[in-house]
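Dear support,

Our group has been running a series of protein-ligand predictions, and this particular one with S-adenosyl-L-homocysteine is the one our PI (initials K.S.) wants archived with full inputs and outputs. We had some confusion internally about which version of the output was final, so please treat the block below as the authoritative record. The input we submitted was:
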Amino acid sequence: MDINCMEGSRTASMEIKKNEIYTLEITGMTHEGQGVGRIGSFAVFVDGTIPGETVEIKIIKKAKSYAVGKLISITKQSPHRVPPFCGSFPRCGGCHLQHMSYKAQLSFKTDLVRESIKRIGKLKDVQIHETLGMENAFYYRNKAQFPAGLYQGQPTLGFYASRSHDIVPSPACAIQHQVSDRVRNIVREYIVENGVSVYDETSREGLVRHVMTRVGYKTGEVMVVIVINGKDLPQKEKLVNMLISRVPSVKSIILNVNTKNTNIILGETNIKIFGSDTITDFIGRFKFTISPLSFFQVNPVQTEILYEKALEYADLKGNETVFDLYCGIGTISLFLSDRAKKVYGVESVEDAVEDAVKNKKLNQVENVEFIVGEAEKVIPEMHSRGVRADVVVVDPPRKGCDEGLLKTLVSMAPERIVYISCNPSTLARDLGYLVENGFRAVEVQPVDMFPHTYHVECVVSIKRKHSD
Ligand code: SAH
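Confirmed final output from the archive:
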């Protein structure tokens, strides 16, 4: 095997070859947490590396202008490198950044946000705070989804490997609530003891597809959803008994029928086989009903921090009309309702709005109204009827806000916009638009909702220019 070196002028014309070993200096990181270096004109991406490191890599993929390398060894190690906490790293597709100290992960996220705001949004004078991390960055997820499959011929409930649907067993997950692992081990025991088949994506045969758990962090209630490629589960009373006798906090067990050839985990039909159809949890003082299909933020501790920041940036005095756009099951709308005159929540998924209305009643809130529809259609229509918001909160999916919606917000001219975003690139694009059209992006607070992964959430304070 050749050992090539990237130093000096040799690299400029260097032709790189698949399956060969090279020495590479890592000089940057992609937004998905891969280290990047250069060999000649090629950008080379390597999982599990950190800027400042010199590494030996094997080229496993070569495209026209870039290549992908596999880490072989580290010649010069970053001071931010730590031993990974999980035996399934780096095969498991879950926690890509666990080779970096938590402090370095947070800096990576802050830099990513800074870079996007500067490069894509072309904004210079926005204050970007350090990412708010967790005191205890483990066991934070309230929702686990374990795909079922065979691993070395044995039925396994694990996780998908990075960029594939191969199952990695990962017997104990350090970011899920620990009760989720207990539940999955019991379900696996039941599968093995009763000879129940697991689903095979290629042949589309086999019964159990996924096991999903949802946990109310404040109530302790646990929901177990068994996703099946069929209508019933054999010996299901045995499974129910095993679960409720060994995990008394299980309050709901549901069979979810999904017989489609799809990557979407849950089907539409739910059959309750124990307890209630829903569990509950709290965000702040508000109580929420959670059903198998409803969207609920997965990191309850950081959600409160994010929402508190949104509330601070909304700066409500009590007499405002507020729009909460992309409102999901109405969590932010209720959170804001205490301090506003009226809140309108707008959400495109009908089921989510039904949950939002239930949550409003559950909490005896009067001054919130939920509307089903796409924000880019509902808001122009409301605006043309003369409904105007003083403060607008937006929390769009990864693709960001529709330009038509931003246009309407510009002509509606609310005093403040609070933008919550899970994608720094589309956030930067939308901020650029708002700043060009009469608003000022004042400050950005990144919040670490997903420790050890490359995801970062931001909440942004935006003000109408003349209102300062
Ligand atoms: N604010 C909520 C949910 C945010 S997730 C919370 O904090 O829990 C984004 C939500 O936007 C999803 O519920 C999705 O269904 C909804 N959505 C996606 N496109 C939309 C659109 N064009 N108009 C309104 N809602 C939309």
